[in-house]
Write a structure and sequence with these properties.
Elements lengths: L1 E3 L2 E3 L2 H8 L6 H29 L4 H8 L3 H8 L6 H10 L6 E3 L5 E3 L2
Antiparallel strand pairs: 1-2, 3-4
Helix pairs in contact: 3-4
């Protein structure tokens, strides 16, 4: 905490420590895990959107290729409702025929 005049300024880490818990506590670890998952899903959604736009496809057209409604494509592009099987169908429909998952020290795994 830093004091500026009559105001107290707190860093983001100080606020998270107070509201969620300190690093290493179960609550904070769960929060950080959820944030990481949401960020990864968002990045996958952005990759889907980028590939779709590069092919000048609408969400509806991509949905037709995949066999789902436009709303499902929209949810995926926003980072929701993404599973490996649905991701596989979408990327294959976009002509992306291979994908690997980097597991760090566990090596790489071919997804499709």
């Amino acid at each position: 905490m830093e004091k500026v005049g009559d105001m107290k300024l707190y860093s983001l880490d100080e606020v998270k420590d107070e509201l969620i818990g300190k690093l290493g506590t179960p609550e904070r670890d769960e929060h950080e895990r959820k944030v990481d998952e949401a960020l990864h899903a968002y990045r996958i959604g952005e990759a889907i959107k980028k590939a779709r736009l590069q092919q000048n496809l609408t969400q509806e057209e991509l949905g037709e290729r995949v066999g789902v409604q436009k709303a499902q494509i929209s949810r995926m592009e926003r980072g929701y409702s993404i599973s490996i099987p649905s991701m596989s169908r979408v990327f294959k429909a976009l002509g992306i025929t291979t994908a690997t998952l980097d597991l760090g020290i566990g090596g790489k795994v071919a997804l499709w």
